[in-house]
Amino acid sequence: MFKKIHVGMRTLKTSLSVMIIVLIAAFTTIDPQISALSAVFSQRADFGSSFTFGIKRTIAICCGAFASIVYIFLSGLLPTNTFTTALLAGVGIAITIQVSLLLNNSAGIIGASATFLIIIFNIPGENQYIYALWRIFDTFLGAIIAVGVEYFLPRPRVLKWTDAYNRHVPKFIQIVTTDDDDHTIS
């Protein structure tokens, strides 16, 4: 009926990445939400896959931000009405998808499209340019933190620490170190 609680290596590393980002955000002007989401998306089973996914995620956000900048520029030149907004939104999504495909990042199309749509529909016009640039930075920071955690805490090193911890605590609060710690988010 109830599934056993499983806190594995990837969960711990993802949690650590988010904690680091929240601490950095406390002393800077970064958006911890965007950076933390980027870290959650980027944290993978090993350094190589974390690095690759972090790069793909950052490229996706760049594609969406680029398309939103094109949208913002064109919307400033054209009359403001529903038809223009709809036309530019469609053109912007086409740009987002095509740039993603040109950069061989089809897996990033959804994230790129979400970035584009959030910027054009949820961010006030006077802040859209700067938000697009900050979104790229926040995403890059989250990916870098996740990849850094994976680099500095590789599985063999963490296994030694978790084994030592597990020997000193009751079974119900031990850290599981099996390979089935898959909280895959695509």
UniProtKB/TrEMBL annotation:
Keywords: Cell membrane, Membrane, Transmembrane, Transmembrane helix. Pfam families: ArAE_1 (PF06081). The chain crosses the membrane at residues 58-78, 109-125, 132-153. Its main location: membrane. The keyword Cell membrane applies. The keyword Nucleotide-binding does not apply. It is a multi-pass membrane protein. It is found in: Cell membrane. This is FUSC family protein. It comes from Aerococcus agrisoli.
